[in-house]
Structure prediction request, 134 residues.
Amino acid sequence: MDFDQPLPREVKVIDSASLFRLEERACGLGLSQRLDPAWVQANAASDGTHYLWPILWHSLSHRPDVPRHLRCELLIAPREGGHVLSLLDVIPDDFTPLPRVTSREEGVQVRRLLGQASSVREWLLRKGGVSDLL
Prediction:
């Protein structure tokens, strides 16, 4: 992906295995917007459909070894149902091959959910506490 290009304007659809892989990758690179992979594995619906929406390009000027990456809004389908909102930093080589939503209607629905979903922290507070794994 050429960084001179504008921000990708496509919603990506990911399954739980891909979500876990992306969270592990972000953790391994020390990217700042991610969840602990153990938390994701424990709380994301194993057969859930999750969504990524790029919101900005991000780089770590103090760490030139880390590639420029996309900061994405992430809708996670938890085991209990519904969706919760988080952020996830994704490198372009991992983002580009992900499948995108297949219809305009699905994209509109995801954008609506992004505006309405509770954050992971809010969701955890409702469940009775905030995890130290975030």
Observations:
- Residues 42 and 79 are 9 Å apart (CA to CA).
